[in-house]
Amino acid sequence: MPDVETPQFEPAAERASQAERDIQAPLDAKEKRSFKDEEKQSPAMQAGARPYPAPPFPEQHQAKPGIEARLDPAPMYDAPFYKGSGKLEGKVALITGADSGIGRAVAVLFAREGADVAIAYLDEELDAAETRAAVEREGRRAILLPGDVADPAYARAAVQRTVEELGKLDILVNNAAFQEHVLDFEDLTAEHLDRTLKTNLYGYFHMAQAAVKVIPPGGAIINTGSVTGMLGNKDLLDYSLTKGGIHAFTRSLAAHLVDKGVRVNAVAPGPVWTPLNPADKLGPQVAQFGAKTPMKRPAQPEEIAPAYVFLASPQTSSYITGEVLPIIGGYSGG
């Protein structure tokens, strides 16, 4: 094909190119100024009822399973500005991993909304006792259920004791978790993978299977997922796998239990200041925990717990089942 000469269009093309440069120039200049401003580091976003801590935190590391009483700063779980309104009046809830972190904050708000609480935990006696005291300060009953959720016999016993001592079971919160990062794929041993799967997947399965036998129509199951189950995490291969599985389990179990009148949903948090993370990461990493979120800080447990109240209460979420609610401190948009 012969070349097509279009000299008549060249002046217009040059004008278009110049117009593009005219648009670009002021935006480039502003972006350069913005880079300099970013070097100064804007403060963490504060949009709550009270200010929340932001990195850097003191460097710290704990042996598993981690103790909330040793965390510095102490996690904020009591939500003093949250006012209960009877959303769970007369209900009974069983919460795994309720000794600390998100589980403790959920236990407190459930109690403030009128529920009695069974506190399931591994062996963190000091933390569990504090959760029990916090529930009782809200004027509700609490029982302690130490044990390993990975054991199906424990799941059956925990549900049975809840019914025997608190009279019934309306709400199950699957929240207990095991997390340990690896820097190299080959370092993820079969034993490590097995522990993660058995706690995070088997545990949720066993607890739900035992609970659905007694949860009445109008009851609810809430699973704790994770942002890692949606976006993945290069150092948390097994943990991310289980959290993605929890999201799928939530949607599948929700469909399965519709005819029984039991709703199933999940909350998928981003970074939250709990013992789970200092019991996983080393001191320098803990010091910057949550800094990479758009809000530039981790959530405090009391910022996550109201979502569990919302999903547990028939007053607020009666038409919601099979949903996964992310609470991750914003999306980067980058």
- The radius of gyration computed from the alpha-carbon positions, rounded to a whole number of angstroms, is 24 Å
What do we call the CATH topology?
A: Rossmann fold
Write down the domain tally: 1
CATH class: Alpha Beta
Fraction of residues in helix: 40-55%
Q: How much strand?
A: 5-15%
Shape: elongated
Architecture per CATH nomenclature, i.e. the level-2 architecture: 3-Layer(aba) Sandwich
What structural class do helix, strand and pairing data support?
alpha/beta
Major sheet attributes: 7 strands, parallel
Low-confidence stretches: none
Strand line-up of the largest beta sheet? 3-2-1-4-5-6-7
Please tally the helical runs, counting DSSP H or I stretches of 4 or more residues.
9
N-to-C terminal Cα separation, in Å? Answer: 44 Å
